[in-house]
Amino acid sequence: MKMSRIFTKTLRDAPKDETAKNGALLTRAGFIHKEMAGVYDYLPLGLIVIEKIKNVIREELNKLGCEEVLMSALQNPEPWEKTGRFDDQEVDIWFKTALSSGGELGLAPTHEEPMVNMLKSYISSYKDLPVYVYQFQTKFRNELRAKSGIMRGREFLMKDLYSFHTSEEDLDKFYAQVEQAYACIFKRLGLGDSTFETFASGGIFSKYSHEYQTFLPVGEDTVYYNPDKSLVFNKEVFTDEVLDEFKAVREDFRETNAAEVGNIFKLKFKYTEPLGLKFADENNESKTIYMGCYGIGVSRVMGVIAEKYADDKGLVWPEEVAPFKYHLVAIGESGTKVADDLYSEFADKILYDDRASARPGEKFADADLIGLPYRIVISDKTLTEDSVEVTDRRTGETRMVKTIDLKGLFL
Amino acid sequence: MKMSRIFTKTLRDAPKDETAKNGALLTRAGFIHKEMAGVYDYLPLGLIVIEKIKNVIREELNKLGCEEVLMSALQNPEPWEKTGRFDDQEVDIWFKTALSSGGELGLAPTHEEPMVNMLKSYISSYKDLPVYVYQFQTKFRNELRAKSGIMRGREFLMKDLYSFHTSEEDLDKFYAQVEQAYACIFKRLGLGDSTFETFASGGIFSKYSHEYQTFLPVGEDTVYYNPDKSLVFNKEVFTDEVLDEFKAVREDFRETNAAEVGNIFKLKFKYTEPLGLKFADENNESKTIYMGCYGIGVSRVMGVIAEKYADDKGLVWPEEVAPFKYHLVAIGESGTKVADDLYSEFADKILYDDRASARPGEKFADADLIGLPYRIVISDKTLTEDSVEVTDRRTGETRMVKTIDLKGLFL
Q: What domains can you pick out in chain A, each with its CATH number?
């Protein structure tokens, strides 16, 4: 992508009401644009990051045999009324609207009810199970406050996976597979070292659910962890009773802030029972289907990555989610010629600052703000040594690479 | 994709209230699921079709230098109030909702206002222009009636492109490029022979806009065309005055139904003026920006393709949008062995009916209903002649292909 062509510009200032670091930096660097608190547009660079995060998740889920769909945002109240969740007293973050032909509708804050309801058309026998269905869908949540940039959206992108099983054992087995997949996903997203599976309250059918918490000073959750972080508890379950159960002592634990980037639940019959999702077993007996659900906040993950790695110069993207691997800066006539050649061959890996009007200092500052993993500078000066300068954005380390070896970086 | 793994099934019947052929067939074949009138879920096969349509459009627009973004569905009334379009008297298909913290919101039925408003952050000089920005976004329109399957959605997927220019000449030039791109897009989507650029009413700043109308008996629009279809008029502009202007006579024209799959508008100052999107020209004079907009109804295109090509056995997909090119049916033990091998090598091009429980007749009927371009049957019988049977879904023509040449079909 050529910077002379992108319609966005880096901005000196973020909107005044943008108090979150992720929101401010992503806005200044041209990744997002704020429509209102908790509602953002994704600009060309930001949309690439979103798509890269989605692809990492998609690849890992497809390995488990999960199938992708896309469900609607507009919600018929009917299935939600069967579980009691259309009631604003029960779920207090609904956006509601109405059909001009009559009848109230909701905007989906999550999709358990329509998913279970939809599957009644396709599942009838034990032979149809297990089923694993996921989507990347915009969720709408009418949050009273939304001051954390894209870490807490009123409109945000989520991956939600739902699994359906004939038995608790089969649910447990798949749940464990998802745990493995999540570990792999957060590792690939650059959050592996700081994201921990955390015990949280479980709801009606399970003692615990699991959250994936990324330790982060500005995280809105409070969690407690032991020295090797093998046990992490959300505040809500950090009780003497729970500690006893895990044979742990309170003194071993430390408190930290964290941001919830994912969660997984053994829902069992919570939704399948009231909505009547059943199967006929081997003996033709009708039984209720076991269900699990597994979320990852896609746009939130983008915000958490921005928040976690940014330094005083700007954003710092892990390689797998960076919109491009290389930020190419050309200075002078010969530099531009070599840079043009390189770009023409590897355009999909390069953000090329080809702006004739920008000074080198401006280009370097923008490269730091945008935060791609490596900056390549090709100038008349580096070329006198038949070299280009490659700088690691994270460490700031610079090395010279011979022009003859330059293409090797891209292969 | 293996049919034994897909959670959907072909259904004998569509929902009773599904009167449109596209809605009924797409439901029966497992591409979509109806949530309510005009609101559908996209199931695994359907989502692949949507993504293929998007990719065709994306490829052609990117060739023109267009940049992809993703704007929000939730709409702050402010920019819409400046153009008068937040008023339900003015735009009668709004879904409205409200923030729990106070304030009415809309669900975007289109995105001119937020797009123009957003660009005020990035465009200030003639050097920043032209700009071409597009997105694939869910639109919400509170239609009183929605009985045409996915051809008229209350929630539907649209590609909307907006262009911004310093002069009318530059707008005209880009508009002509988009006309070329649209011709190419509809050709690739399999609608080239039946889709015609049609004169329609132009609004405030232009005498005419152009619609892309696919001739179709169930289309909701009425258009008039001359013998070589070089002139097509929407009913609203088919007047004596307009005919005079084009030196055409009414007797030469025939009437037909058509479905609008795209439209392009020279909006000029319609939105940029009230929203104050200006640029400084070479003399540092402030001028209003010229604007064009260019839509394609992505989910509607899918419905139109389904509607147009379906026969009495089911759907018939053009190759470029088919979820897979080949529908592989294995019969018998040796047939299954050869089919397994083929699938393992070319999984991304094959829908493999590997169901052990389904009879051959059932598999053939499902292949016809789902409508992939080619059916390959590998049975113990075809293998006695070292062959497989390949049937063209559209023509019904069958030919035998030697197993030794089989892989050649996929390369």
A: 21-309 (3.30.930.10), 326-410 (3.40.50.800)
